[in-house]
Amino acid sequence: MRKTNRALYRSTLQQQAINAILQSFTREVAFLYLGEHLKLGDRGNSLLLDLIKTKELKEVKFADCLLKNDDLTQIRNLLWEKTDKLIFRDNTDVGVEGCVLIKHLVTQRPVKVFSMWDCDVGPSQLSCLIQGLIAMKGDVIEEVNLRGSHMSTECCILLKQLLSAKRIKKLDLGHCRITNDQLIYLADGLEAMTGTMEVLNLRGNLIMRSE
Hints:
2 domains, elongated, 5-stranded parallel beta sheet, alpha/beta, single chain, 8 strands, Leucine-rich repeat, LRR (right-handed beta-alpha superhelix)
């Protein structure tokens, strides 16, 4: 019964958030707060991206994510195909659900430059982002910058899949806490990658000089 009640509670919260997004299409909305402890789901994420595309929002907050004006502007520009870059830097407010939204975004609009530089991204967030890049259209990515993220073994395995699926010309994995044991997955991915990588940064990781 408790599990059923929790599932119903989450479903109700999600529907309330979706209703709030739908209502915002007919209003002049600058700040949108959808509540905490919220997973929007595929429909909610699609609606939210449509809203960001059509409205001049200044701030969107939901679950563990806070998207500010600059974040929303670049997402809107990507949706309108005015840019092929998605760059977050020093943004610690993306959160897990924010990464789910970004994953949803890049599967709709491919990027040539993707950066989450010093955003304090944890393994669950990073896994979600890499999955989005794997599913993204296109075979070549000019630059991927994950500097300062926490790269778990699962993330390294996903990164191997990404390198096997795409050619990445420039890859920055500096200060990602990569270990010697995890390095083998990156090496396997590089071996499987079509074409050559022009720049690879592994500085500041837990890798011995001999490795």
